[in-house]
Structure formats: C-alpha cells, structure tokens
# Entry
Amino acid sequence: MFPGMTVTRRLLRWTRTAASFQRETAAASPGIVPLAQQADAWEQPLYRGPMWRETQIGPEIALVREVDGARLMFGQGPRHLGAPYGERAANILRALSPVAGGLRWGEQIHGRVIASLSPEPGGTLSGVACVGRCDGLVTDEAGLGVIVWTADCVPLLIAGGDVVAAVHVGWRGAAAGIVPTAVHRLEVEYGVAPQDLLVALGPAVGLCHYEVGPEVVRALEECGVPTNQWCSGGRVDLRRLAAGQLVGAGVEAGRIECVGGCTACEPDLASYRRDGVAAGRQWSLAVLRR
Ligand SMILES: [Zn+2]
# Structure
C-alpha cells in the first residue's frame, strides 16, 4: 500500500465536521440531544478545522496549524503503549528541526500547576526533558516546544502575542481551574490579552464515551459553565466544558478550534477508557518558530 493512501484515509476520519459529529453523537447515544443544539453561540467555531493539515513527524502522523508565528501540532497515537516519552520526544524533535531546538513536558498529575519556561540569560533550552510536576507549560522562547501527553483528556494548545502554551485538561484539572489559570497566566506574566489568543482543543474522549458519576458532574458544575453546554444524561463533553471556561476567561469563541474526534471512537487514537492501562498516549505540541 502507498503510504499516502493511509494518510488520506486517516485525515478524512480526523477532520470531521460539526454535522457529522452531531450525527455520530446521536447514533452512539440514542436519546441524547446533541449539545451543539443547546450551545449554538459557539458551536460553529468549536468544530472548525480547515486550517489544519496532516503531516508525517518521524514515524507518527500529526495535524498541524501555523498561527501568529507559532506552530501547533496534535500527534496521533499510538493506540497502545509505545516507546518512553523521552524517546518519542527525541524523534519528534529530530523531525521538527530546525523549527524547534528543544522540547519540554511535565509529569502530569491532574492539577492546575503551570510551569513558565525560559532559559538563563544568554542560554538556551535544548534537547528533550521532563520539567517535573505540572499539567501546563508556557514559554516565550522561540524554538522551545512544549508538549502534553493524553489518552482521553483534552490537550489544549494556545498561541498568541509571541507566547505558546500546552495544557493537559482532565476532569480534575478542569474542576481545579487549570483552563482559566492558563489564560490568566498569559495575561499577567506575559502581557497577552485573552482576546489575542488562539486556542485549539485536540482529540479527547467525547460525549459518546464519557459517562461519569454524579460526583464528577457536581465538581465540574463548580466551573461556572452552564451544565447543559457540556453535560447530558450523565455524560460529559470535556472539550465543550473547556471551551465554556475559555470564553468565561475572555477568549473569543471564534478563536477556539476543536480538532479531531473522540479518542474512544477513533481506532488510531489512544484511549484510556477503551484500552485501560494498555492505552498509548497522543502528543500535542506548541512551538514558536525560530
Ligand atoms: Zn466516542
């Protein structure tokens, strides 16, 4: 088989439209009214994706978008546990050269700690490394890529004002407020106004596969986003919740993009809900181009 054929088929599965998303949600969950109908104020921008193109990064496939001097990327799979993060990051860095000269990620713990990364005066941050416990990373250093690893949680990438960020958003992180914390951090520490940000929400478990207990819904209700925008019939759409949090933090709805489908539905994506401890991890990366 020609490699290109595989790529094209995967692309078609990945860049689904709002209409197909609603059809699939309805088909997978009879009786559930698609949330899009209840949240039409930001339904259209949320499921927009034509600016994203597919590319090969070493042995892996990623969706890529260039914006404001930054490159945002959502890597695919592997479905099952693969090489250690350091090894994968080294492969990614090699493929991204010379755009990126270093990659960093955090030991994700479902909290709201966000690390700001900048080199010592006169120095650079090169190579690949885990920076310790955090669920988000921000940098204004050109060529330093920030990564989060996910398998159902929401990978959230931010670009704007010569700053990029990558944030890992599970339900605990969302309830802890990591989404508005990231927006606030960019404003107070880097002087980037929320309305100047572009935010992309990558592949994550969808409403179709994310049934949760009432204690989770109660915790998420504390986020202040109207429940009917992200919860239906005991199921939760974390990306819609995150989008509501972003809008509440001042990000323009038209600058929030949703990329890729439900991780549990898509056979090529890693999903903890579907595969448990055998699940691999998607990588999501933001970098300011050098
Ligand atoms: Zn699904």
